[in-house]
Amino acid sequence: MNESGMAVKKIMDFYQMSDPKKLIVVSDDINTLPGALAIQDGGDLKSLAGQKGQESIATTLGTTNFIRFRLGVGKPPTGSSMTIPQWVLGPFGQEGKEMDLFYYLMGHTTQALLDFVQTNDLKLCRKKFTKSKKIPSGLVATESLVCPVQIEGI
User: Fold this and answer.
1) Considering the chain, what percentage of its residues have pLDDT values greater than 70?
2) Pairing relation of β-strands 67-72 and 24-29?
3) pLDDT of residue 138
4) 8-34 burial: b if 16+ Cβ within 10 Å, else e
5) What global pTM score does this model have?
6) Residues 6+ apart with CB under 8 A from 129
């Protein structure tokens, strides 16, 4: 995933997609609260904030001018000896409700992507789906991420 730039370039070439503004990259983000969605477009390399996969895409394409749906996974718990790679590559736990938060986030992100594809209005989509800076409440207890995602409006 950290070296995804060449794969994205090959896909864009295959589909004869020359405008990076039509590219939507969905990835995890440790700088966004768990369960929250951040939506960005453009910016400089610094705006990618160390997300290696996005940096690889930007470097390969020669631009950061693509749309990013950043799924908040947060950082390792305070006092934990876990490194960032261990955190993002490790299994979701139940103790900190990581699995419940990610389940919520999958449905939320799917709905945001659908809304954006239908309206082509990134500003409206960002306003509608990224207004919360708090960890969501009323989460569904999730035993597994192998589950259906509810999509409204299809």
Assistant:
1) 82
2) parallel
3) 74
4) beeebeeeeeeebeebebebbbbebbb
5) 0.82
6) 37, 39, 108, 111, 112, 115
Q: What is the pLDDT of residue 87?
A: 81
Mean pLDDT check: name the lowest of 9-13, 35-39, 58-62, 73-77: 73-77
3-state secondary structure of 104: helix
d(CA 49, CA 54): 9
Domain ranges of the chain: 5-129
Mapped onto helix, strand or coil, the DSSP state of residue 68 is: strand
Does domain 5-129 fall into CATH 2.60.40.10?
Answer: no
Sign of CA dihedral 39, 45, 51, 52: positive
